[in-house]
């Protein structure tokens, strides 16, 4: 009798493990199978040109804030995205883009935060960007000083870890939590967005419309009006968004009505 119960328990445990593993890998597998990411792409030849999603500062004189994400280079793009924030103050003739890149740390630069004039809607090493959120006019003008202050106060400038963070998505999530007007929802495949630091376990969501608990970005739970319900396991997120009638899969991201 006891042996039969034990076999059933371990059978259920194995089935649960198998289903969880399938759930974690099905998204990245679909990304690679459908050609959404070029695993053979090389950084030196990849297209980084603009895509036309950002307004031309020569014709758009008002303030604009845009937040983008694009799949990362090579096979890692099957699992996650790189995100960044771009701002253009009123009457400015150029954009300023803020992002975190790992090579600055790997080459001994000591500061992972990059401020540049690159096109906000530029491809990320060949991968098309997606516009996550945007502010224009007075709302953008009010948010830009807050964004600049959040960039200056980012606490992990000297650290970078692709998995589970801190990385580029940790940086953009930090800005979202500091600038309420953005109401930013980072994609489920923005690995690192749930990394809260070495000691913090609780935080507002990046949209500031909910709360989350996260253990080193490796396991946690997020509940928010904008984010819906997300579960984090090994820094891979899956969940549901009732507001948008969508589900979220690791690697793939959002599948839904909107």
Describe this structure in words.
The chain is of the alpha+beta class and about 260 residues long. It has one domain (about 1-180). Helices cover about 25% and strands about 25% of the residues. It has four helices and twelve strands. The protein has helices at about 1-35, 105, 135-155, 170-180; strands at about 65-70, 80-90, 95-100, 115, 130-135, 200-205, 210-215, 220-225, 230-235, 235-240, 245-250, 255. It has a seven-stranded antiparallel beta sheet. A five-stranded antiparallel beta sheet has the order 4-3-2-1-5. Strand 11 (about 245-250) and strand 12 form a beta hairpin. Helix 3 packs across helix 4 (about 170-180). The model has no long low-confidence stretch (mean pLDDT about 90).
- Would you list the SSEs in sequence order as H and E? HEEEHEEHHEEEEEEE
How many beta-strand segments?
A: 12
Q: What form results from the Cα inertia axes?
A: globular
Number of distinct helices? 4
Helix content: 10-25%
In round numbers, the mean pLDDT is 90
Main β-sheet: number of strands, strand sense, barrel status?
7 strands, antiparallel
Rg from Cα = 19 Å
- N-end to C-end Cα span: 52 Å
Which strand-content bin applies to the residues?
Answer: 25-35%
Name the structural class.
alpha+beta
Instruction: Give, in spatial order, the strands making up the sheet with the most strands.
Output: 6-7-8-9-10-11-12
């Amino acid at each position: 009798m006891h042996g039969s119960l034990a076999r059933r328990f371990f059978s259920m445990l194995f089935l649960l493990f198998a289903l969880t593993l399938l759930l974690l890998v099905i998204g990245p597998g679909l990304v690679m199978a459908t050609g959404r990411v070029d695993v053979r792409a090389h950084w030196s030849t990849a297209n980084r040109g603009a895509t036309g999603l950002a307004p031309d500062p020569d014709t758009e004189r008002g303030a604009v804030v845009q937040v983008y994400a694009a799949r990362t280079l090579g096979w890692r793009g099957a699992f996650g995205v790189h995100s960044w924030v771009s701002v253009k103050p009123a009457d400015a003739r150029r954009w300023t883009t803020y992002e975190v890149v790992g090579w600055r740390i790997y080459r001994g630069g000591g500061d992972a935060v990059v401020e540049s004039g690159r096109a906000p809607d530029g491809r990320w090493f060949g991968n098309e960007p997606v516009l996550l959120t945007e502010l224009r006019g007075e709302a953008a003008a009010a948010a830009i000083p807050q964004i600049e202050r959040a960039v200056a106060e980012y606490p992990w400038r000297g650290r970078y870890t692709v998995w589970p963070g801190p990385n580029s998505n940790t940086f953009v999530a930090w800005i979202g939590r500091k600038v309420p007007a953005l109401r930013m929802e980072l994609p489920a495949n923005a690995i690192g967005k749930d990394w809260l630091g070495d000691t913090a376990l609780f935080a507002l969501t990046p949209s500031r419309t909910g709360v989350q608990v996260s253990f080193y970005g490796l396991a946690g739970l997020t509940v928010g009006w904008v984010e819906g319900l997300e579960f984090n396991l090994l820094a891979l997120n899956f969940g549901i968004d009732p507001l948008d009638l969508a589900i979220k899969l690791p690697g793939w991201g959002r599948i839904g009505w909107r």
